[in-house]
Write a structure and sequence with these properties.
Elements lengths: L4 H6 L3 H21 L2 H30 L5 H21 L7 H29 L5 H7 L3 H12 L2 E2 L2 H24 L9 H28 L2 H23 L1 H5 L5 H27 L2 H7 L3 H12 L6 H19 L3 E3 L10 E3 L4 H16 L1
Antiparallel strand pairs: 1-2, 2-3
Helix pairs in contact: 3-12, 3-14, 4-5, 4-10, 4-12, 5-9, 5-10, 7-9, 7-13, 8-15, 9-10, 9-12
Amino acid sequence: MEATSPAGSARPQPHAQGAAGESASLLRRIKGKLFTWNILKTIALGQMLSLCICGTAITSQYLAERYKVNTPMLQSFINYCLLFLIYTVMLAFQSGSDNLLNILKKKWWKYILLGLADVEANYLIVRAYQYTTLTSVQLLDCFGIPVLMALSWFILYARYRVIHFIAVAVCLLGVGTMVGADILAGRENNSGSDVLIGDILVLLGASLYAVSNVCEEYIVKKLSRQEFLGMVGLFGTIISGIQLLIVEYKDIASIHWDWKTALLFVAFALCMFCLYSFMPLVIKVTSATSVNLGILTADLYSLFFGLFLFGYKFSGLYILSFTVIMVGFILYCSTPTRTAEPVESSMPPVTSIGIDNLGLKLEENLQEAHSAVL
């Protein structure tokens, strides 16, 4: 009996085996939920958009600091012209209800409002830098995310889960870390000429961005990407062209053109054109909210490039900020939102799975079916 006691005591307890098995199973489920192919693809697409925004920021800063060129409306006008020349012309050669003339007959006033919101959102954010601080712009620009979620709730009938609100809070915490790093690194040099006006401009610009993004998601998912880009290109060209003649004609006349300045304008226009062209593709497979969370890293990419181009000081908080934002972004993408059908009668509304994060939901269903078969 004594000889068998050590062997008996060395055996793992049944409850210990069960706990270890449950922990391993939980880890496998978390890994399978957070690191799927669709989530990794969404992350890659979001960071591609961030790099496009980074390119516009760097070229604008070069134009402003090295060549004393501050013409945001002219830069936007060139982008809208590119959209017009490609996507609006494509609509003109479409047949049937997708033809440019048919779209204008039915929805011309709606697209005028959309073009106005898009143009003014770009202009107000850039103009705010003249009045308020970098910190205020970075923090208040995040106001667009809750506005976007609210508009998606009422207009697109998106229904969020607790994990989505936690993910947004994590992303905003990452933005706060980035702002703190800016202050510690000494990038907060501009006190602003009128902080209140600048803050109001940022809030208005962020709200208009949210309106534009919600309209983009609706048009891309219900109609077509070409229609959205074509109509934004048409009315964006008209509105920005009129506005630049009013507010920037003196700045444009004072530009000393050479090949370097022209190259920076071309680089800005190409980055902005790629951003506008690819963003509808990403929104179609995810949502406007998830895209806006993913592009929060754009400022960090600009900072990383600024270490070499503009002599910025490095801070370890930048790495922490990037990590926190990416964690929040992955959390948001890990669970698809739901779409509540609009109420058309006195019957209770029927809630069903929407097309937000569609690829993720399909993959989740396949995994559940495979588990059921096993």
